[in-house]
Each structure stands twice: as structure tokens, then as C-alpha cells.
């Protein structure tokens, strides 16, 4: 097969190199294939996988093609930054050295906050980087250092993006009444991961925020808070939610709470409860 014939076939079938390895070191042929589909770089020769022009062209078309670059080029800052601009998930294929490069990491976490998981411990303790990560995805707080999980500014930024991110804050902050009230006002769903005794702050929040706040706390892992939600002014979740709660907790909650759950079900069956909300109302 002549080179002209090979080029023509590549234009019609980008996977040509899979079946014709004899052409995997021909720069013109491989470039033509990569132009059709950057992931074809995986079938190129080791020499071309280490060719900066070739790899840069590939990652500019599909950042995930970085996976098939040589180890040397995975450590090339220009290559990795180009890949990140195209696909934020390409960060996982960069070298460990560049995962400790602040410019590269900032670029990565601004596009995908959870890329923080792949960075060095040093940068997981860098407030600028962690703030950038949680502002993109609140759940990125999970991968921050212990010190920054106890930083009020960082945690509030994460909670503002996602109330559920409070789960990954330090226990100290999750037990801090002043902070929990502030976090809950920032994002009502933060109440689900407070470690405060529900009876001590629940009503205070309801008074400030209004009754719309009630069902924000229904998924709180502290069952005292969930009972407080359910009992407040006779408001209860719908039957299906209560039944799910029973399946999840009936074996390990205190006997008193079990009895209260069964009482709720009995009352529902007897149609004695008012203000029974449906899912559609929330």
C-alpha cells in the first residue's frame, strides 16, 4: 500500500492505524488520523507519542488524549494546560510533578473542583486553591486539608455552593451554633449535617427563616432534628418518606423514637393528621 493510498484510507477511517501498525510511526499518517479522532494517538508509535507537536495537536482536539502521551509530555506544562482547556478531566493524566504546580492546579480546580483530590497534600492546604475548588464544586471540601476544613471562610464558600458540603467540615464547626446558624442562612440544606442538638437551635432557625425551612432538614442524620421537623406544628413528610425512614432506622434508633414513628403511621392511617404535605409542594 502506498502512502497516498494510506492517507486516503485514514481520511475515511480514523481507526486505520489499528489494523495497519506499519504506519504508526509515520507522522503525516498519524496526524491525519488524530485529526479525525484525537484518541487514535494511543495507536501511534512511542516516538510520536513523545512528539510535542503531535501530542499538542491531539490534546487541543480532545484533552483526554493526554492519557496516551509519553511520560515526558505528561510533565510538559504547555501540553497539560492545553489539555485542561479542552477537558477538565484530563488532569488525572498529568504528571505528579504538575499536580503540585499551583498554576496548573488552579486551572484544573476552577473547571472541576473535585480535581483537588488529585493534588499534593501541600496544595490541599493552600487556601487560594481550595477556595477556587469549593467555589466550583462545594463537595470538593472533602479533599481539603483538615486545617482548611476548619476554616470558616472556606467552609462557608463550600456551603454556599452546596449545603450538603457541610458534611465534610470539621466537627468543631459542625458543633458551633453561631457558625451553623450562619451556614444555614447561607444555604438551608446545611442543617442536614449539623452536629448540634436539634432542640437547641431548630426553632431559632425556623423563627428567623420561616416555615419554608422545615423540610430542608428532613434528611438530617440526627433523628432528633428529623423528629423536630415532623412534629413542628403537626407538619409531617408524606407516607412514603416515613416508610423509608422506618426501613433505614427501625433497627438502630432508640425504642422511644421507634414508638413515635409507629404512632405517626397509625395516625396517618386513621386520617387524624392535618397539614400533610406532598412531595410536589417542596
What does this structure look like?
This protein is mostly helical. The protein has three domains: 95 residues, no CATH class; 100 residues, no CATH class; 72 residues, no CATH class. 52% of the residues lie in helices and 0% in strands. The chain is built from 17 helices and no strands. Helix 1 runs parallel beside helix 3, helix 5 runs parallel beside helix 7 and helix 7 packs parallel to helix 8. The longest helix is centred in the last third of the chain and has 15 residues. The N and C termini lie far apart (67 Å). The C terminus is likely disordered.
Describe what is shown at a glance:
By secondary structure, the chain is mainly alpha-helical.
Beta-strand content = under 5%
The percent of residues in helical segments reads: 40-55%
The secondary-structure element order is HHHHHHHHHHHHHHHHH
Quaternary state reads single chain
Major sheet size, sense and barrel closure = none
Give the low-confidence spans.
232-259, 267-282
Q: Identify the overall geometry.
A: elongated
Give the overall average pLDDT: 76
* Record field, number of beta strands: 0
Return the domain count.
3
What structural class do you assign from the helix and strand content?
A: mainly alpha
Query: What Rg do the Cα atoms give?
Result: 27 Å
Tell me the number of helical segments per DSSP (H or I, 4 or more residues long).
17
Cα distance spanning the termini: 67 Å
Amino acid at each position: 500500500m502506498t502512502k497516498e493510498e494510506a492517507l486516503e484510507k485514514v481520511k475515511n477511517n480514523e481507526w486505520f492505524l489499528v489494523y495497519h501498525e506499519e504506519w504508526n510511526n509515520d507522522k503525516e499518517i498519524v496526524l491525519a488520523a488524530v485529526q479525525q479522532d484525537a484518541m487514535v494517538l494511543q495507536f501511534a508509535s512511542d516516538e510520536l507519542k513523545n512528539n510535542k507537536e503531535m501530542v499538542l495537536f491531539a490534546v487541543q482536539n480532545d484533552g483526554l488524549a493526554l492519557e496516551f502521551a509519553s511520560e515526558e509530555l505528561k510533565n510538559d506544562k504547555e501540553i497539560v494546560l492545553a489539555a485542561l482547556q479542552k477537558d477538565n478531566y484530563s488532569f488525572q493524566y498529568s504528571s505528579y510533578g504538575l499536580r503540585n504546580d499551583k498554576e496548573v492546579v488552579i486551572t484544573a480546580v476552577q473547571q472541576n473542583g473535585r480535581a483537588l483530590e488529585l493534588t499534593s497534600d501541600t496544595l490541599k492546604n493552600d487556601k487560594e486553591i481550595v477556595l477556587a475548588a469549593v467555589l466550583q464544586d462545594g463537595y470538593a471540601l472533602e479533599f481539603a486539608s483538615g486545617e482548611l476544613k476548619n476554616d470558616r471562610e472556606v467552609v462557608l464558600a463550600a456551603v454556599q455552593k452546596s449545603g450538603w458540603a457541610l458534611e465534610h467540615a470539621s466537627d468543631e464547626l459542625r458543633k458551633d451554633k453561631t457558625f451553623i446558624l450562619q451556614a444555614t442562612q447561607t444555604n438551608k440544606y446545611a442543617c442536614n449535617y449539623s452536629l448540634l442538638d436539634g432542640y437547641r437551635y431548630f426553632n431559632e432557625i425556623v423563627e428567623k427563616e420561616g416555615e419554608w425551612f422545615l423540610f430542608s432538614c428532613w434528611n438530617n442524620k440526627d433523628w432528633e432534628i428529623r423528629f423536630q421537623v415532623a412534629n413542628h406544628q403537626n407538619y409531617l413528610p408524606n407516607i412514603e418518606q416515613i416508610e423509608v425512614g422506618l426501613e433505614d432506622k427501625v433497627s438502630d434508633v432508640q425504642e422511644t423514637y421507634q414508638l413515635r414513628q409507629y404512632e405517626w403511621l397509625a395516625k396517618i392511617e386513621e386520617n387524624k393528621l392535618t397539614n400533610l404535605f406532598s412531595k410536589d409542594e417542596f
